Amino acid sequence: MNILLDTHVVLWALTNDPGLSQRAKDLISDPDNEIFYSIISMWEVQIKHMLHPEQFTLCGKDFNDYCLRSGYSLLSLKPDHITGLAGLKTINDEPVHKDPFDRIMICQAISENMIFLTHDSLLKKYEEPCVFNI
After folding, report:
1. CATH number for the segment(s) 2-133
2. Which of 11, 96, 110, 130 is the most exposed place for a label (fewest CB within 10 A)?
3. CA–CA dist 126, 103 (Å, integer)
4. How far apart are CA 74 and CA 76, in angstroms?
């Protein structure tokens, strides 16, 4: 199974954070699964680092290096990922999640036939079977 990790899940996995559930750890460590991180996550990390370097000390380059060392595969951004935003719907047309990074990563997962592993309960509002909340 191909699994795309939400940014916070990548960070938790890299640091062995106790917030990462056992189910997520099992999915990430399963040798039958290929684990992906998005170029969008690298961008998000770099932005957070630039805005608050004293609080968010990890920069995009180091994030990328840690992901590669951990054996994760990079998922680049493609036109289909962007155009998929137009079809992204929520249950009962509830307001969309305000985080553009999450929305584009859901579209990446849909387009690439991946599971999107997240801890963000707001993402359950999307009618997408690829969103797997841990």
Report:
1. 3.40.50.1010
2. 96
3. 9
4. 6
